Amino acid sequence: MINAIFYFFVGLMGILSMGFQLLGSRLLNPHFGSSIIVWAWLISTFLAAFSAGSILGGWISNLPAERRGRTQVMVTLVGVLGLMFTAFLGRSALGWIELQFENISVGLLVACFGLFFVPVAVFSSFGPQCVQFLASRGTAPGSASGLIYGVSTIGNIAGVMITAFLLIPNLPVSTLLQLWLSVAIFSSACLILILRLPSDATTAS
Questions:
Q1: Which of 26, 49, 50, 201 is deepest in the core (most CB within 10 A)?
Q2: pTM check: above 0.85
Q3: CATH number of the domain that 159 lies in?
Q4: Which of left, alpha, beta for 33 (phi over 0: left; psi -120 to 50: alpha)?
Q5: 153 is in which domain, residue-wise?
C-alpha cells in the first residue's frame, strides 16, 4: 500500500513539473509573446532547474537522517515560497520586468529564472531522494533509478496533456497557478513523510 502511494506522488510531481512549464508559457505570453525565443529561455530555465534539483536532491539524500529531515523541510519551504510568489505576484513582477529591460533576452532571463527556477529546482530534488528511498529498501540502484524516472516521465506526459487540453482551455492561469501551489504543498509534504518511514515500514517493489 505504501509503495502504491509513493509511486502516485512520484507521478504527481512529474505532472506538476511539466504542467508548470506550460503555465509558465501562458504567464509570459502577454508580456513577451510566444516566439521561439520565449520557449528557448523557458525550456532552458526548466532544464537548468532540473539539473540543479538533481544535484541538490543527491546531496540531501546523503545527509545524516536527522539533518536530512530538517533540510527537506527547509528546502521545500523555499520552493513553496517561490511558487507562491509566482502564483500571486508573477503578473506584477512580469509587468515590472517588461518595463525595466528593453532587450527581450535579458528580460526573459530575469523573468524565467526569477519566477520558475527556484520552485522547479526544489521540487525536482525529490527525484534522487526517491531513488535513495527505494535503494535503501533493497531495490538495486539501477532499478530504483529506472523506476523513479520512468514513473516521473509518465507523469510529465500526463502533465503536458492534462494541462494543455483540459486545464488551460477551461480555467484562468491565475487559478491554475494557485491550484499548482496547493497540490505542490500537499504532494511535497506527503513525500517528505513517506521518505522518513523506517526501512521496515514498507517492502521495496
A1: 49
A2: yes
A3: 1.20.1250.20
A4: left
A5: 2-198
